[in-house]
Amino acid sequence: MKIGITCYPTYGGSGVVATELGKELALQGHQVHFISYAVPRRLTQYHENIFFHEVEFSNYPLLEHSLYTLALASKMIEVIEYEKLDLMHVHYAIPHAASAYMAKQILKKNKTDIKIITTLHGTDITLVGLEPHFLPLVKFSIEESDGVTAVSRFLKEKTLTNYNIEKDIEVIYNFIDTDLYKNVENDSFKNYVAPNGEKILMHTSNFRPVKRVVDSIHILSKVKKQIPAKLVLIGDGPDRSECERLARELGLQKDVFFLGKQDGLTDLLSVADVFLMPSQSESFGLSALEAMSCGIPVVSSSVGGLPELIVHNEVGFIAEIGDINRMAKYTVELLTNEKKYNSFSRNARERALNNFDKKLIIPQYINYYEKILNS
Ligand code: GMT
């Protein structure tokens, strides 16, 4: 197959899923054309089946605001036509699905038919898409996509009800390379963070308000009242300064490590004892899956698709959004009961292996592509 993929190229989970999917498709012999404004971060190596097409911007002075949606549609038209793509798979509805719709309509005039598949990832449906000025556009572009997938049952249901849509939406969960995401020795980092054998809590995210990163600092503060512990925060974003301020205010500046954006997460995740995900909204929780694959139990909020990933009292614990007392209690419970901890750690790794390994999920995408192409 010849597949076009559009995604956000930066740190977000939707870009990670899209890029890892494209890389796997290429390894399996499909030709993959990424179309975006920058090379996706995870696209680090040359592969003969992978091509990147950069969306160009016009800088004519009259065009004060970015015309990315139109520029993307134009680039899609060019690539679909000249590379003879079979389908265009867009990740994150806004504005990618609208650009793809436009490209499809224009190509129809040239007698070129292209199938459009939209994968819904999260805030495109639960937050941004619900803004009144976006809602009709998002609803329309979902309805007009030839195929739609969602990364959890929760997200599928939210899409159908919030947008009043009647459409078959295929649930295809996030996936993980369990050969890559596994526990490795990293004593030097462990000793650096926890020189006296303190327990290590960890959180990775883009520090947007929806991630409630400050909750993880409050959780550390409560956990520390019972056991020696440290917190490692990986990532960066709008809430970083507030988190640094809070850590100082609570006198935790020596206990909270801000690492900023990092590659090579397995080395870092491997030193963690518990992974925290106190999100306000989370359609799946890819970073929790990354931790689970490394055998790290997760303590999270119970929102969105998280209960589909984190089986309560088996691979971790879930609590109401903002219930930092309960999350701290669960964290202490895990860290003070070795037998329970070891069994949760094993279960977390096994759940990643048996349910979300890329070997299980990539074929679901390929089957779905074939279904849509034959429809
Ligand atoms: O919706 C977002 O916040 C953006 C998106 C991203 O690009 O980071 O994240 C979502 O997609 C991930 C991959 O499918 C999911 O694992 C995340 O749960 C989801 N984030 C939210 O729903 C907040």
Large-scale geometry? elongated
User: Uncertain spans, ≥5 residues at pLDDT below 50?
Assistant: none
Structural class of the secondary elements?
alpha/beta
Topology, number of strands: 13
**Small-molecule components bound:** ligand GMT
Report how far apart the termini are: 16 Å
Which CATH C-level class of the largest domain is it?
Alpha Beta
CATH evolutionary superfamily of the largest domain? Glycogen Phosphorylase B
Query: What is the domain total for the residues?
Result: 2
Strand content: 15-25%
Instruction: Determine the mean pLDDT.
Output: 96
- Summarize the helix and strand pattern as letters: EHEEHEHEHHEHEHEHEHEHEHEHEHHH
Q: Percentage of helical residues?
A: 40-55%
Tally of DSSP helical segments: 15
Radius of gyration over C-alpha positions, nearest whole angstrom: 21 Å
The main pleated sheet reads as: 7 strands, parallel
Strand order across the biggest sheet?
Answer: 3-2-1-4-5-6-7
Gross CATH architecture of the largest domain? 3-Layer(aba) Sandwich
